[in-house]
Amino acid sequence: MTDAILCACLTGGGDNEVAKTALVPVAGGIESVLTRIDGVTIGVADLAGGIAAYRKIGFEVDGRGVARTEGDRLELTRGKEGLQSIALASDDHAADSARPGTDYVKLVQPGNAPASRHPNGVLRIERTYIAVTDLKAAVERYAQALGVAPKMERGTVINADMAIFQLGPNGFGLAQPVGPGVCAEALKRRGPGPFQVLYRTSSMDAAAKWIADHGLPPPARGIRNTGEQAMLVLPEHACGVYIGFVGMP
User: How many domains does the chain have?
Assistant: First the structure.
């Protein structure tokens, strides 16, 4: 890990500090040109069943299993259930491909397809989370790969210590549980790996109402370390993934 990244990792600010994208040098002098999270891929046992499940959660999913939000997308694909990978948009694919590789991440050219209007009010991906068993080691590995200094936080909703790499408007999170809760349960169910997608929504109440009106249990609610409300749709209703919402009532 370079000195610039190491220093930033050890001096993260308080919970309410706004994380900023840090374009920092990494080995070989390459500078970060990762611009945002471009999308997530979720495995489903059956594509039609997966589309139906996500429509119940309030996503406008097309017949191919794709739901588009502002600058990013959710894609359902047949395979083992759960959050399979996180796509990061790169302005310089060749340069970013020269970085050390990391699990669960793929590089893509930035997409520009228009966002759909979703009944749950989702606007964009706020964060993704990967569960790890050794946060310090994971931070070192992902900081080298992403070229971005993370901000360290305590996640009150998932009960975990977190390292958040800010990529433009999106946060790419690593999480290690500090006790029972969402992160610990994800590790128990699937082992280390991606487990949650958190969406910014225009209306928490509208999202909750749509979900309830379509026969799902009310999402579990909590308070983020920013003071905002958050709620979670559990994996049994989202093809093995925790789908979170954050925003104004």
Answer: 1
